[in-house]
Design brief:
globular; Citrate Synthase, domain 1; 58% helix; mainly alpha
Length: 365
């Protein structure tokens, strides 16, 4: 039977992650996501996804050093970015710059971990370089004594970031490293299945992530938080929206039928940081009010916050423009994409689904 969009169709077997939507669980290689965000860094969880196990101290040090050594953009890539029209969105810039990286002969079949580390390391630098250039500001070179997420924030502003902001963003980026056979991951695996190079597969994924139905900007959540901050009464704003039949952005998820575990992990981080940032405080208050009103006005629907809600609060707290939301998502998901590409390469079969013809047939008389 035809399944449009391949919904519910199992196309691969994977060791990388498991999504249990009914029970609200997300697992990376056997580890519950909440335990990972609570106890491990971005680099440690990236290592887990790439290598299949958490690193020992020496392995972690080696990975951090490799990421740091690969942060700089080559001169030709800076020139390419500078020549792109200013109206080109950041996702288009990332796609073009990463594609240019594929000119090196080392990118062939099969893909390697060192290639994945390189692409993961340079993506935040591409974002920061483009943003600073568009703002007519001097580019901030990477600081080699900073870890991956902290350095990303530093390059965007030129200032050492608030530790609370680093903690919140690192939690978000760990949560978005990987999420099963989503559209962009599928695109990456399809390209890799042809034995194309890693850069080509990742570029396919970036182009897919760019679509608003996948990695779209959280404009609705930003509007909600801004409105509540202006009015000063979360319950009043939310009741008005629900009375008008408007969707409450940031609540509910297509896969998770209960609490989104990514949202729960972000909330746990936020509760540790209460009192350190007004936007994080506001997000916690809005969630409490909204969940109570949704249960009152839409009983039995089980509508809880999704990861987009708290991700938006993070962006507001660290003064990130909404245009940086999907690029930041992309910077973290680079790890998951490349992990899936490695898995595809290890037991490869080219994807070749069938289509069902529903047009007319003209017969010759």
């Amino acid at each position: 039977m035809l399944q449009k969009g391949l919904k519910g169709v199992e196309a691969v077997e994977t060791f990388i992650s498991h999504i249990d939507g009914e029970n609200g669980r997300l697992i990376y290689r056997g580890h519950e996501i909440g335990a990972l965000t609570e106890s491990y860094s971005f680099e440690e969880v990236a290592y887990l996804l790439w290598f299949g196990h958490l690193p020992d101290p020496d392995q972690l040090h080696s990975l951090k050093e490799q990421l740091k050594q690969n942060r700089n953009l080559p001169i030709y890539m800076k020139k390419i970015i500078d020549l792109l029209p200013p109206e080109l969105d950041l996702m288009g810039v990332i796609r073009t710059a990463i594609s240019a990286e594929g000119g090196y002969s080392e990118y062939g079949w099969k893909p390697t971990i060192s290639q994945a580390i390189r692409l993961t390391a340079i993506t935040p630098t591409i974002i920061a370089y483009r943003k600073r250039r568009l703002e007519k500001k001097e580019f901030i070179s990477p600081l080699y004594d900073l870890d991956h997420v902290e350095n990303y924030l530093y390059m965007l502003t030129g200032e050492l970031p608030n530790p609370a902001h680093v903690k919140a963003l690192e939690t978000y980026m760990i949560l978005t490293l990987e999420h099963g056979m989503n559209a962009s991951t599928f695109a990456a695996r399809v390209t890799a299945s042809t034995e194309s190079d890693l850069v080509s597969a990742v570029t396919s994924a970036i182009g897919t992530m760019k679509g608003p139905l996948h990695g779209g900007a959280p404009s609705g959540v930003i509007e909600l938080l801004n409105r509540i901050a202006f009015v000063g009464d979360a319950e009043k704003v939310i009741r008005e929206k629900l009375a008008k039949g408007e969707k409450l952005m940031g609540f509910g998820h297509r896969v998770y039928k209960t609490h989104d575990p990514r949202s729960m992990s972000l909330k746990a981080t936020f509760l540790e940081l209460v009192g350190q940032d007004q936007w994080l405080d506001l997000a916690v208050k809005v969630e409490e009010t909204a969940v109570k009103l949704l249960e009152e006005l839409k009983p039995g629907r089980s509508l809880y916050t999704n990861v987009e809600f708290y991700a938006t609060a993070i962006m507001k707290a660290i003064n990130m423009d909404s245009e940086l939301f999907t690029p930041t998502f992309t910077a973290s998901r680079m790890v998951g994409w490349t992990a899936h590409i490695f898995e595809q390469a290890e037991n490869n079969t080219i994807f070749r689904p069938q289509s069902k013809y529903i047009g007319t047939t003209h017969t010759r008389k």
